Batch of 3 targets.
Target 1
Amino acid sequence: MQERRRAYRALVVEDDQPTLRLVKNVLEREGFSVEGVRDGQAAIRLLETVAYDLLIIDLMLPLVNGDQVVSFLEQHQPESVRRVIMTTASPRMINCDVLQRICRVLEKPFDIDRLILYARECMDDAA
């Protein structure tokens, strides 16, 4: 009999619709149950009631940026911060404090295989 494991939940926070759709599809193919939102404010509304196993957060977001979403996590779900992958075209713009606490930074444009590798690493590190 095959062991049935629960589907991990992922939240993708990305304002670029094609990128959001791509990341969502890739993670779903990897067995994640994925929700996606296009701004940091919507992400925080979800995070007020849901704990995710993996979070992929764009740094530059409308309304509330990625650093602010990570700050919210630190205050309300500190165990989740180690499962954050921050995406950005400008990695040098990431606050050094945030950089030390999150799992990974994925520079845009990114390779799908690297996204999968980082997602697996973050899940293994958090386990």
Target 2
Amino acid sequence: MDNQNTVGTQFRALRIIHIALCVGVLLILSVFRYLVKQESDVVPDKNLIVEILGVAIGFVCVIAARFLFFVRTKAGLSVVTLKEKINIFRGAFILQMALLEGAAILNLVFYFLTKNDLHFFIALGILLLMIFRRPTRVMAAMVLFNSMEDKQAIYDDNSPL
């Protein structure tokens, strides 16, 4: 199994995790939108506290996800082996996606409870952000390597870890 542990397999696994998280949020988004739109005679509940809470959670989680991603990947500059660098990147990426997914799902729950479209669009925006923050080798090379190191190893699919 260790002979199959390459940079290419690690990035394929990260892409699969990314797609699964995005599809999960998309499915919940679709189901809740369908359920809310089926009740067309229901007036949205204008609860100011829930609106502010949904916006605040979305904003804080988006900022925290990016901040924690860069804080956690900063440790990759001090390690030497490619395997450790990839593990640091994977952990930071999964943490970032988990924070974004949590904020999106929480806003979807608020949408389902209050029928307020604001929460739907916050969740949709966070989903789009999740989609655009996919795991790329360019991002990994940028945050894991010093300017003096050889970044080419991360672009070679067959580089063993």
Target 3
Amino acid sequence: MLISLFNSRMYLINTSLKNIKAITLLLICFFSFSAFANDVPKFLEMKGYAEQGDVKAQYNLAFMYYKGKGVTQDYKQAVKWYRKAAEQGYASAQFNLAFMYDKGKGVTQDYKQAVKWYLIAAEQGDVKAQYNLAFMYDKGQGVIQDYKQSVKWYRKAAEQGNVRAQYNLAIMYRKGRGVIQSNNNSYIWNAIAAANGNERAIINRDLDAKILSPRGIEEAQEEAAKLYEKIYNK
């Protein structure tokens, strides 16, 4: 009798749990659909403006295709509209178009095209494009490996506050790639990246400190403080 009662209760519990899961799934679907439905009017509005040549609308429409907001996700359409905005000189669209070529989303992966569009965006000051372009030169992807060009673009991104660029620029100084080897400059850029929470930069900064003299560390710390202030308090 007790076993039968226990089994009955377990059946009820399991049934209740299944119902809860079903209700939860329905709620998730409902809210997901509601969010999608709410984006549809915005998508249609953007599409109208984009077709009239509005560059920001073209960029936003591409982003909606990329994310599947208000429309079925479609990387090819995202590429199409990023390209239209990019060809009108919109730096963020140029970066995103380069990224699509870089990762092979909506187009056949093509590092040369990625480099082309990263460069165009980088020259307009897009910090993410500057970093990615530096990385392409660093690794020789889509372009002949060129450490000097890599240093140039890492520096531009680093001076705009890109932490990964700061860390990589420190590595270039530490290994003497594209620049004269300098543990002093490596320490400076590692210290700045470390101040922004880059854990690997903390390790490398401390390794640089073991090579520098006490006076050298003091001078590097002073220079890092000045440079940090210049970058983040413009």
